[in-house]
């Protein structure tokens, strides 16, 4: 059967397919559910509160990061938002075109670009964020306050582990792997 499957149906299918394979099923299910929850949350927000503001999840996150930090170098905005610098360029162009964000030169290094919200962007975030937060509360409505705090701490622990040890782990995995194939940029390899 193809199409949408519930979380329970998916877990049962995984168990049927991989039940006798020696894997850390608990880890697989945890990461799978983090991914599914993140995708469901993103879709919910884009179809509800962000739709009214004509924002994607990514554009909202960029606005949020710049709003919180007031002014920030583009490379740091991309890193904080979890997107590439190329993706950030497109998002910023769109947000600039809507008059929500502006670029500025760095005071000490003219090569660096700073982002800041315009007055219109500030106004949008001040009015949008309470509605956004109401949807955050809706998403975790089945959890009580203590369960929300425990979930937040558990996810923080996952993030901190990757921040502290992820670079070393990725480097070790890359060292034990063959080099990746060349990117499909359309260019022919040099002879």
TrEMBL record:
Residues 164-191 are annotated as: Disordered. One of its GO terms (molecular function) is DNA binding. Keywords: DNA-binding, Transcription, Transcription regulation. The keyword Lyase does not apply. It holds the Pfam family MarR. InterPro entries: HTH_MarR-typ, MarR/SlyA-like, Tscrpt_reg_MarR-type_CS, WH-like_DNA-bd_sf, WH_DNA-bd_sf. GO terms for biological process: response to stress. Residues 27-160 form the HTH marR-type domain. It comes from the Bacteria. Signal peptide: none annotated. This is MarR family transcriptional regulator. It comes from Actinomadura litoris.
């Amino acid at each position: 059967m193809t199409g949408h499957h519930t979380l329970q149906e998916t877990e049962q299918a995984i168990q049927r397919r991989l039940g006798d394979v020696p894997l850390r099923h608990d880890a697989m299910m945890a990461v799978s559910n983090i991914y599914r929850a993140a995708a469901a949350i993103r879709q919910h927000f884009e179809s509800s509160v962000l739709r009214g503001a004509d924002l994607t999840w990514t554009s909202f996150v960029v606005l949020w990061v710049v709003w919180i930090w007031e002014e920030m170098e583009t490379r740091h905005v991309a890193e904080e938002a979890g997107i590439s610098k190329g993706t950030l360029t497109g998002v910023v162009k769109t947000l600039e075109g809507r008059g929500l964000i502006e670029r500025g030169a760095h005071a000490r290094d003219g090569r660096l670009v700073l982002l800041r919200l315009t007055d219109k962007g500030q106004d949008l975030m001040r009015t949008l964020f309470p509605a956004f937060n109401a949807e955050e509360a809706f998403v975790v409505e089945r959890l009580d306050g203590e369960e929300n705090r425990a979930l937040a701490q558990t996810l923080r622990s996952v993030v901190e582990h990757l921040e502290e040890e992820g670079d070393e782990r990725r480097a070790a995995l890359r060292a034990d792997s063959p080099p990746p194939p060349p990117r499909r940029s359309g260019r022919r390899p040099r002879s």
